[in-house]
Amino acid sequence: MTLFIESFSTDQLLPPWQSIDMRVWSFVIPVAPGLIENHLKTRFNAAAPDRAPFHYTPLPDKTYGLLCVTRHDNFSSTYERKVGWDTTSHIELYWTFPVLRHPVGPDNLLGKPELVWIQPFAFDNNSYVMFSAREIWGTEMEMASLSMTEGDTPADLRIDMAIEGMAKFDPRAQSQSIGCMRMGLKPTATKADLNALLSNDADLNAFVDILIGAGIFTGGFDTGADGSESGMEVNTLRQFRDVFDMDSAAYRAIVSSRTQHGNIRNLEFFSGDDTVLEFLWSDSMKETLQSMFGVRERYPHSRLIAKPPHLGAPGTPLTNWDMEHMPVDVALVISYTADARFRIEKTLHTYGQTP
Amino acid sequence: MSKRIPYVQSAASQQVPPPYHFPGVTVNAFYLNVSMAKVQEYCDRYLNIGDDATRDYVYRPVPFMPCATVLFLNYPTMISAAPASQMLGEVAYADRGAISQTEVFVALPVIRYGRGAKRLITDTAVEWALPFIVVGNPMSSVCGREMLGLGKLLADIENGEGRYPDSFHGRISLPGWPDAEPGTMQVQQEFMRVETKPVLPTPAGTQPPRRTLASLFDSRAASKMLGGMASVANFIETSSLGLIPTTMRTVGLKQYRDAAHPHRAVYQALVTCRAQYLNVRNVRFYNELDVDLYFNDTGSFHQILKVFLDVGEHPTENPFSVNTLAACRFEADINFDTMRVIREFPIDRDGGLPPTPGSSDLVSRWYRPLRGFFGPRTGVGKP
Asked: Is A9 within 8 Å of B148 when comparing Cβ atoms?
């Protein structure tokens, strides 16, 4: 067994993790199967140089994804070999959608598929969480300034995110803090009845059934009699560049992890029609937005009445919000408070190691 | 690596490929005494990896340089000169623009000795280990950590003029824990601070400048030497008594954890990179006797300080003041390139599989042209 040589610089929040009283806002967004297919093709189904013993496909029917913003006020590592120096707080944003993972047999035939979740991008405002996410299970998480405020009414919700980047690529451009995303509920927004929202939409109904099956907003840390567990199995492509050949990876693998929610409370649903979700169009975000949400109409102004905040600590440069806004249609909004557990299950496949 | 594994490039990857060019960098350098035992301890833990009996190299402190260098760098412009990826629609990094950042690191000079008569000649090289490095830009921290094996932490860095004109003020704040009790919340805390008086000559200061190391340059002979050589970058190393190296070849341990078993490694390699200081100019010295430099020896920061300072076993919860041997400021253009994996270590695997094959490229700079530039890494133990 080759031991990892520990140091303070790599000692960040080792999994498994737990989060107490996390506050979640999930935005259910339709996603085109072709875009999912493209993502899976290069990340999970590629020969690199060998093929993993799995093949990933989009769900057969209309598919939705979750854009989740979660505020973790009490987030800690429960790694058994370390006690203390393990608790922090942070806000994260991630985009995830379900896909089917088929085992591939020796005869090259696809076996019975399992539903797993893919996380193409994620942002966080805590560097320790970012390092753990990127370096241990491979989520391509970026550092961001994230603010999430709630008030007495649903309409008080405001979520804003800024990143370090370029509004416009140009050899003379200088990176700066740029607005990236804004979310909020309209002044008329009120709590909605889930059954009423789903009554005329069989596809959305099926997607909510997937979430209920995983216990996302129904909760449960228990293991079933057949050994099955609640939660979302997330598959990530974990890769690191070789230092000599930049088109090569020094290490590339598919990692499986599981997120479970429990002790669900303050569960509320809102109609997508009452929601404003906008991405700000910059060259730094363009590729990510196009690959995940396709080409959409853009507008010079935000649909949110509230002005964007000045994120960041005193003395940091102001954020540039003066970019085109790309609204994204939302089908349903789910908010709740919960406890969560997160653990890495195993490395499903390591590339380049088959004889 | 026996097989080429493709890397999937994307905007979210953040791993910006080198080479990098950094024009107009302002460097404030502080030189501290460091214990040879600490440096050897660091070498043994992070560089002298594997069985001592069969390892074909050994890292040791440089006996004639028993000091650590603390560098505060302000990069107004950082440019990646990497060509565009082959992916359709990818914009070349050099065409995207530039980022800026501040950086602070502690550098320890170390010597890698090749073992055996032949390797002692062909594989011996002076390199710099960076036991502590922080940056203000998240993309830089990701690149350093994931590609180069530099343990860059993300920090708030103040780096500029202090109370007096032409003086220096530097301050680092890092995420840390005030104590090791379970449940104690992580907070942003001051990790270190440095203050100087104005550069010499100056009437400010509590110590007479004639007692400082920098006063060497007050002598006519030394001034003449400095004036004659300072315009030639290659002689800066000589004219500054070696305090300003024109080329720093760093060495770091690049390693990744096993996802499900974080105490195990799935990849371990020694990586070297070249930081070349070109067009070194405006070299000015501070009175080292008037430099106030301290680290906060509190909570989880103690783990950092233990690596390169003699701070004792437990945190004192007080500032740990450090005497400086010399201090200076200069400007330079810096190229960061020539990355190499000089030693990839075999990794044990489960399931009855043999360990992954390691590789070795331990060739000193002078001998490399004779072996051929950028030659393939060879298997462990092979010539």
From this structure: no
- Shortest CA distance to B2 belongs to which of A355, A231, A269? A355
Collect all residues of chain B within an 8 Å Cβ-Cβ radius of residue A86: 182
ipTM of this complex prediction, to 2 decimal places: 0.92
Domain total of chain A: 1
Q: Which of B97, B133, B182 sits opposite A166 (nearest CB)?
A: B97
CATH of residue B199: 2.40.400
Q: Is residue B383 part of a domain?
A: no
Residue A267 structural domain: 8-350
Give the range of the structural domain holding residue B19, as residue numbers without chain letter.
14-218+277-337
Mind listing the pLDDT tens digit for each residue in A86-113? 999 999 999 999 999 999 998 999 999 9
Taking a C-beta distance cutoff of 8 angstroms, is the pair A245, B4 a contact?
yes
Predicted confidence at residue A216, as pLDDT, reads 87
Tell me the shortest Cα–Cα distance from B83 to chain A, in angstroms. 10
In a domain, B186, yes or no: yes
Q: What are phi and psi of B243, to 5 degrees?
A: -70, -30
DSSP for residue A312: S
**Would B299 be classed as within a structural domain?**
yes
Which helix (H) or strand (E) element contains residue B128? strand B125-135
**Quick one: pLDDT band at residue A305, thresholds 50, 70, 90?**
confident
CATH number at residue A167: 2.40.400.10
Using omega within 30 degrees of 0 as the cis cutoff, is the peptide bond preceding B354 cis?
no
Which residues of chain B fall below pLDDT 50? Answer: 1, 224-235, 380-383
